[in-house]
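Lecture 7 notes: from sequence to structure.

We start with a single chain of 118 residues. Read the sequence below before looking at the structure.
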Amino acid sequence: MPDKDIHRQIHALFGNDRLSEVVGKLVMHWDTVCPHVEVDEKNTHKRRLNSRKKAWDKFFGPRRGRNKGQTLKYFLREFVVNASVEDKRLVIEVLRKGAACKELTQKEFESLSRLLEK
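Now the structure, written as tokens:
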């Protein structure tokens, strides 16, 4: 996917957040960030939700984007691995907080942090 298309999808989903903020949203707020898991309420703006679902599927893929672990691995592998040392440190800190809050298991935390050490 060209960089312009990737940027468009990321901006549609996460705005101008830093990598660590995006990982934090994926870890801590999965139920509200993933449009496929999000619960339709009475006042849900359907067109906006559908555009988020379309952006999510285009960015993460229709199957991979529905699983928290696979989505995190894809995001870390594609974007965080080549990030600066400071960004990686912030992402590992967010993952550590997610493990402390029981949003990630210890096994998931170790697997995801190993991806960043490579």
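The mean pLDDT is 85. Keep this in mind for problem set 3.
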